[in-house]
Write a structure and sequence with these properties.
It contains five helices and two strands; from the N terminus they run αββαααα. The chain has 139 residues and is mostly helical.
Amino acid sequence: MSTLYDIQHHFPFDVQPSHAGKVTLTVEIEAIHVRCFLQMLNSLSSFFNIINSKAKVALAYTRQEEINAAGEKYYAEFASAVVDTFKQLRRETGEHARPLISATLREIKQIYPNACYDNVKQILTKSGELKKNGFYQKK
């Protein structure tokens, strides 16, 4: 192999172990080449940052189905807990639907702290529980 492409011939370097799995790299270059060398390192850094960003995006795409499935499972468990809690409170108290929604929210917030009134009401509407309890009847 020609010495033209031998990096150690042009830039002698030494690699020594350092702490925490890192290495210390010592490069011997002429003073007039320092600026070019630093620009090259900066370009390489930008290149590896782009590669790293693209790798993160690719990883996110591969995990998208898994994340969506976990989100759907969480929502299904949340909706089931809302409906079950509403039915249980209705059996225990016999109240009208409106106060039961608030009571259901209070109970659900103990398990799902991000729950809100609108989400609970929407789930109960979709399940048909509010219609069964006369929530939409005019008084």
